[in-house]
Amino acid sequence: xxxxxxENVRKTFGNIDVIPGVDLEINDGEFVVFVGPSGCGKSTxxxxxxxxxxxxxxxIMINDVDMADASPAKRGLSMVFQSYALYPHMTVYNNIAxxxxxxxxxxxxxxxxxxxxxxxxxxxxxxxxxxGALSGGQRQRVAIGRAIVRNPAAFLFDEPLSNxxxxxxxxxxxxxxxxxQELKTTMIYVTHDQVEAMTMAxxxxxxxxxxxxxxxxxxxxxxxxxxxxxxxxIGSPKMNFIEGDYAKARDCHCVGIRPEHFAIxxxxxxxxxxxKIAEHLGAETYLxxxxxxxxxxxxxxxxxxxxxxxxxxxxxxxxxxxxxxDANDKALSR
Amino acid sequence: METNFKSPxxxxxxxxFAWIVGLAIFFPILWMALTSxxxxxxxxxxxxxxxxxxxxxxxxxxxxxxxxxxxxxxxxIILSFGSTIIGLVFAVTCAWAMAFNPTKRTKDTLLWMxxxxxxxxxxxxxxxxxxxxxxxxxxxRFGLIMVLFLMNLPIMVWMLYTYFKEIPKDILEAARMDGAxxxxxxxxxxxxxxxxxxxxxxxxxxxxxxxxxxxxxxxxTSDAAPLTAFIASYSSPEGxxxxxxxxxxxxxxxxxxxxxxxxxxxxxxxxxxxxxx
Lengths: 334, 277
Hints:
The complex is a heterodimer.
Chain A: E1 4-13, E2 16-26, E3 31-35, H1 42-50, E4 57-62, E5 65-66, E6 77-80, H2 92-102, H3 107-120, H4 136-148, E7 154-158, H5 166-183, E8 186-191, H6 194-200, E9 203-208, E10 211-216, H7 218-223, H8 228-233, E11 240-242, H9 245-248, E12 254-257, E13 262-265, E14 271-280, E15 284-291, E16 295-302, E17 312-317, E18 323-325, E19 331-332
Parallel strand pairs in A: 3-8, 3-9, 6-7, 7-8
Antiparallel strand pairs in A: 1-2, 1-4, 4-5, 9-10, 11-12, 12-18, 13-17, 14-15, 14-17, 15-16, 18-19
Chain B: H1 8-36, H2 40-43, H3 58-66, H4 69-100, H5 106-115, H6 125-134, H7 141-165, H8 169-177, H9 182-193, H10 195-211, H11 214-219, H12 227-232, H13 242-262, H14 264-272
């Protein structure tokens, strides 16, 4: 069981309001991702939940008990750090067992739980090694193993994949998602990578400057962003924003169109443009174009598109998928 | 002309220079050891005799018969180890707080602590002597351990602080998440990772305490007197007996010289740690 509720949680460092006041509901068993640009306060929020930072004010309800003043150990949460934070002087076995030893478990129980976690994470052959003799992915699995054995109310992940190379990151992403499906324990995952957020989360919390910009399912954020910030942050490549006459004609301050929501023609269409750079990835093609009277835009076409520098094209946005924003960057109804 | 240390002649020049400096530093110790094996007459011979003299052990046997070397040596061991162990308890906790929970004033506090080392000890001799007299601590091991421990505490805190700074805070936080209380966090996680730093801090402190002569000479007479007092006792009353004095000095520095020789790697690492990444 691990339901977490934040009630007006605030954190200030000196005179700086890092978290000006966050309310958030995390249901039992949910996979929640905090996402936002660096410095948005997502790691601080996670550390407040963990108890590694003290809240300035507000309540942190874990299973309906206010834990805002409890020590990290009392909160029953496990954390996986970006740097893995393994104990370098202990073997893998002792790294995983450390939390259980601190909890005063018997040797037999520790042995059973460690072996079990090692089996789940494919670490059985490495139990006698020190962290220094492991690869990045294995170290990350040890860190996860250390978190699992304590049977926590929730797992907290602080950018756990950012030290891994791209290929390993995709693998570990799948492993963590698989682990969540298997354990069904609440997970809070911090990342600045919107792809990780989109692929892993049941619920995404988009943060900016310590404020929650929007909370919702991944596809909700993609299809109905609450404001220009969320619209620009979720989705890759980034949404195109068009201001000026094009927006005025649509009764708003700014129009947002995702790169994948254009029809491309070499004969006619809404927006004439010139291709500047074409990136051919095989499965898809990214066109960086200069649209007449609008400026640079990015277009994403599926498959191989036979276009290159200086080609003239016409773009027609999918009318159903145009996003409109007012002068305060709030989303308007379509 | 610029000296190129990588050219063969540059290398030779560099080595010769290093040897000259090394020998200059080592010469007094060598001379002391040689003199300790001379007769008193050979010891003051002009021109000085290097190896061409009658080697004798009579200074050593004389000294060991005349005074209780082992009592002084035992006091040296108790004082240097005692002050180091007490110092370590305070320095570890202090350095932990400064390295992992720094405040705006941490750097100032560190500098202030170190600045106390720059004051000449004689400046506080009178007040400390009077305090020792009134509290009955004169010529007591306990009193001297306290003085040596306080005297070297700033250096211990500094050394441990630079070591602890190199340890990622994440690891201690992981221990906290794993349910470790503060003492367990320090014992099971911080200290094992800082073993090299703690070892070199201990070594340096033992050497400093062993060699300390100002307070040990001023605050002791016989009961708590360490080897520094043992050497001093041969320096004047019966006129200067260079050979005996050298033998006493050799006996006094021998233990710490051996310890220092075997742990020089640790020591150098300790003194330069944190200087480069």
